[in-house]
Amino acid sequence: MSDQDNSAYEIVERFWPYDGPHSSDTVTDAATAVGQLVRYMNNATWNPRLLNGPSLYRVLSSLNSAAYGLDQLLEQLAEAARTLAGDSTMYDDRRDRPASATALELAEAITAARRAFAGVPRREVERAAGLACHLGHDSVRDA
Questions:
Q1: What's the CA gap between 71 and 81, in Å, rounded?
Q2: pLDDT band with cut points at 50, 70 and 90 for residue 135
Q3: Is 136 helix (H, G, I), strand (E, B) or coil?
Q4: What pTM did the predictor assign?
Q5: For residues 1-11, b (16+ Cβ closer than 10 Å) or e, as one string?
Q6: Sequence-ordered list of residues with C-beta below 8 angstroms from that of 36, at least 6 positions apart, any chain
Q7: What DSSP string runs through 55-109?
Q8: What is the C-alpha separation between 81 and 48, in angstroms, rounded?
Q9: Quick one: DSSP state of residue 135?
Q10: What residue ranges do the domains of the chain occupy?
Q11: What is the distance between the alpha carbons of residues 112 and 118, in angstroms, rounded to a whole number?
């Protein structure tokens, strides 16, 4: 693990300590950070020469870990939506259906996304990380 990897863990732990405190705000802020980090990576990796073999493996390995964690996260989000179905203070802003019906439909959509992502896409990220772990360089180059 590089010093940069350690600093990434420290940054995450500083803003989102694993053991909390947890709140709606910390959870939504963490989701926003995930989106912004993907945006950053999309912009930063436009140059195919940016990553060497070992760094490509570290990126794919981290994405593989995230993919496995998404299964649990999506399951828990579906449960949160099902719980909302029983909340009498909820409303659907379209006002043409009960909020409970929308919440249950949302839970079904999240469950469908979980099933879809748990199949081929997740296995292919795992496969890519497994292949990348075999790449190295005879001479060190900056990446």
A1: 16
A2: confident
A3: coil
A4: 0.81
A5: eeeeeeeeeee
A6: none
A7: HHHHHHHHHHHHHHHHHHHHHHHHHHHHHHTT-TT---TT-SS-HHHHHHHHHHH
A8: 40
A9: -
A10: 1-44, 52-143
A11: 10
Secondary structure letter of residue 139 according to DSSP = S
Report the C-alpha gap between 107 and 104 in whole angstroms: 5
Place of tokens 């992502």: 117
Separation CA 90–CA 103 (nearest Å): 9
Asked if residue 104 lies in contact with residue 85, where contact means CB atoms within 8 angstroms, the answer is: yes
Closest-CA residue to 62 (of 136, 112, 12, 119): 12
pLDDT of residue 4: 60
Q: What is the CA radius of gyration of the chain?
A: 19
The one-letter amino acid code at 127 reads R
Nearest to 99 by CA among 112, 108, 88: 88
Name the DSSP letter for residue 138: S
Query: Using 50, 70 and 90 to split pLDDT, how confident is the model at 120?
Result: confident
- Asked if the bond preceding 21 is cis, omega within 30° of 0, the reply is yes
